[in-house]
Structure formats: C-alpha cells, structure tokens
Fold:
Amino acid sequence: GLELTKLALKNGHQVTAIARDSKKSNSLQELIRTHSEKLQIIDADLADPIAAFTKIKNELDGVTLDGVINNAGIMRQNDSLEELLESFKINSCVPFLLTQELLPFLKKSKSPKVAHMSSLMGSIQDNSSGGYYSYRASKAALNMLNKSLAIDHPWLTAVVFHPGWVKTDMGGAQAPLQAEESAQGLWRVFTELTTNESGRFFDYTGKELPW
Structure:
C-alpha cells in the first residue's frame, strides 16, 4: 500500500490513503511532509467497517475517484470459526462493501477503475498444497465478489490482483520479491487496464491467472 501510494504521488496524482493509525508509520509521515498538497490521509480501522465507511465518505465529500485499490488484508493460518469469520470479514466483505460505498464517487470519473488485492492462493485451480483454509477461501470469495461487481457495473473496470510473494510484514523476510518491484508492476497494470479486462485476475506482471 505504501509503495503504491508513493508511485501515485510520483506520477502527479491526488491521493487519498486509508490507514489504521498514520502516526505510527514514519514512512507515511514523511510522505505527508513532502506531499502535503497531494496526499490526504484518513485514519480509519476497517475492522470496524460501519464507522470506517462513514468517516471515509464524509472525508471524500465532493471528490471524484478515478481509481480505488483495496489493499487491506490479513492472513490467518488456522481454521477455527473465529479465524474463518475474521478472514472473510477483512479479506472479502470489507473491500466489496467499501467499493459499493464508493460507487457514487467513481461514477463521476470518465474511466473509473477498482483493483482488489487478492492472491494466487485464492485460485482453486492453482491449489496443489492445501492448508491456509481461511486465507485461501476468503481470497477466492473476493475473486467471485469482484466478478459479479464487474458484471453488474459495466461502466466500471474492476479486477483482482496477485501482487506476488512480497517482502512485507505479511509476506515475511523469506519472500523473493521486493515491495517496490511488485508495486511498480501493479501500478503499470492498473493504469493500463481497459474495460475489456474488467472481471479478470492478473498478477503484478500483467499475466492472467486461473480461477
């Protein structure tokens, strides 16, 4: 999310970024200092979606959104009821419902785009190792939600992305891909999307992935 924000700002875009607590991120604070005219930060915890959605919409009042990238997500490795429900809430329901809340802002754009950060682990066809029930299932659900969203709103280009296995807090130090490389690829794919590609599943190189 941070690297994509940097790229959007570098390319001259007005950016609104959602963070749980921006004051806890030194990197985000530095971006605020250097891009105060282009960057708006909304502190909102999507684990409390009703409160978060209300705050986000109030802050965006009158704004036209050309693009939305839903990047928030969690990984839980067990299959307890609590972890399954939490994973579906954050990984599937929140990005879908937030996008629905933002549709009026996107409709103002001439070429609106939405990308949900999914994962190859959400591909049923690709799953050959099992495990990670809550994460895999919640990402597969996100893929399906996006597909229906793309069908029901043909004016909107809506896709799901696999960012690769990235060195982040979630991906871990053993991941082979640097965040900057993933973000650069995702940004290129996102900015070059056409309406014909809506409802599809791509990785950060632009390769289409199996469902």
